[in-house]
From TrEMBL:
Its cofactor is pyridoxal 5'-phosphate. It comes from Aliiruegeria lutimaris. This is Aromatic amino acid aminotransferase apoenzyme. NCBIfam families: PRK09257.1. Gene3D superfamilies: Aspartate Aminotransferase, domain 1 (3.90.1150.10), Type I PLP-dependent aspartate aminotransferase-like (Major domain) (3.40.640.10).
Length: 394
């Protein structure tokens, strides 16, 4: 049966991780990694997570099944953290999923069940798994202009021109904050312009939120999607708790679907539960319960917020240090655009060959499209990384 079996090409990011692991050089620098790291190179279990897990260990009386859509307490906690009061709770259907990827997958499954001919419009570029999952499901997708490599910012005119041409019932996929892979975010006037455009075209927004708290703050990072939620009759939101709770392997995600009325929401809620049922039945509960525990307890929540702030500040400090070092190395402001980008990621204007050269000759690892993760840097590696980048890119 499997004699002629061929595996699909490995994920770009996983390929870089493997190359890095196999490199024997002691001074290699990993900017390819997609996770937060401390200066010691660890992706830590957050203090509030440990405390919540201790409580669960002591107090949890059963591991019995919860519900196909997950725990309503978890839904409410993440709904409040993300949407806040921007839309009425009885208009929002919720589905707990394995990670944000699971939420994205189930969101696309829902769209396909609703309309097999739907087109999903994705930012150019976007997180490659968006496109991969859409391809797997046979859903049509079309990039809209987004990143302006010349400025390192948003191609606002290009984006709005492309979004003006989308059809009623199409879906426009946006990144809630900390755009992956570019770090180029929308400001509130951009979100407002998108809301106006969607209202004109009748397209539906889907927002993917994987880095809340890594941009400016927990609330500022969702101000844009809250603006959309207040303005739009329908919207999808996919949330990952992997990064901001450090719960990567526990797989914590949520899909939220805003509909026009509570009655429609009830119907969609039924379909969401069915989507989980025929995929894996019950979603993982442990990490979701940890998130709920943290968000519902004032003291744990304060600890978590403080630790998340520390993580964000470290990423911002590394971003600023790299921009400064690149200024010195290149004697130019060519890389100052890094300062206006948000979150862990930025994109260097590097060709695939230059990325390979950085890896081969300097032991500096990044994704083939030039995506770098600031959390892969520590004070000691900023200068050598900048020097290698300057040498290869100028
Ligand atoms: N969306 C985006 C844009 C992401 O960057 C990620 C994490 N790489 C995810 C969704 C989902 O992450 P996870 O499945 O690990 O929660």
């Amino acid at each position: 049966m499997f004699e002629n079996h061929k595996a699909p090409e490995a994920d770009k990011i996983l390929r870089v991780m493997k190359l890095f692991a196999d490199d024997p050089r002691a001074d290699k620098i990993d900017l390819g990694v997609g996770v937060y790291r401390t200066p010691e190179g660890l992706t830590p279990v957050m203090g509030a997570v440990k405390a919540a897990e201790r409580r669960l260990l002591e107090e949890q009386a059963t591991k019995g099944y919860v519900a196909l859509a997950g725990d309503p307490g978890f839904h409410a906690a993440l709904r409040q953290l993300t949407f806040g009061d921007s839309a009425a709770a009885d208009r929002i259907a919720c589905l707990a999923t394995p990670g944000g990827t699971g939420a994205v997958r189930q969101a696309f499954e829902l769209l396909k069940a609703q309309n097999p001919h739907v087109t999903v419009h994705t930012s150019a570029p976007t997180w490659p798994n968006h496109e991969a999952i859409l391809d797997t499901l046979g859903i049509r997708w079309q990039p809209y202009r987004y990143y302006d490599a010349a400025t390192g910012g948003l191609d606002r005119d290009g984006m709005l021109a492309d979004l003006a041409a989308v059809k009623r019932g199409d879906v426009v996929l946006l990144h809630g904050c900390c755009h992956n892979p570019t770090g180029a975010d929308l400001d509130l006037s951009d979100w407002q312009a998108i809301a106006d455009s969607l209202s004109r075209t009748g397209a539906v927004p889907m927002v993917d939120l994987a880095y809340q708290g890594f941009g400016n703050s927990l609330d500022e990072d969702v101000a844009g999607l809250r603006l959309l939620a207040a303005a739009m009759p329908e919207m999808l939101l996919t949330v990952s708790s992997s990064k901001n709770f450090g719960l990567y392997r526990d797989r914590v995600g949520l899909l939220l679907v805003l509909t026009e009325t509570p009655a429609i929401t009830q119907a969609v809620q039924g379909t969401l539960a069915w989507l989980n049922r025929q995929s894996y039945a019950f979603p993982p509960d442990h990490g979701a319960r940890v998130v709920t525990e943290i968000l519902s307890d004032a003291s744990l929540r304060a600890d978590w917020t403080a630790e998340l702030t520390e993580m964000r500040d470290r990423v911002i400090a590394m971003r600023e240090a790299l921009a400064k070092a690149l200024r010195l190395e290149t004697q130019s402001d060519r890389f100052d655009y890094l300062l206006s980008q948000k979150g862990m990621f930025s994109r260097l204007p590097a060709s695939e060959d230059q990325v390979a050269q950085l890896r081969r000759e300097h032991g500096v690892y990044m994704i083939g499209d030039g995506r770098i993760n600031m959390a892969g840097l520590i004070e000691e590696t900023v200068r050598p990384a900048a020097s290698a980048i300057a040498r290869v890119l100028t």
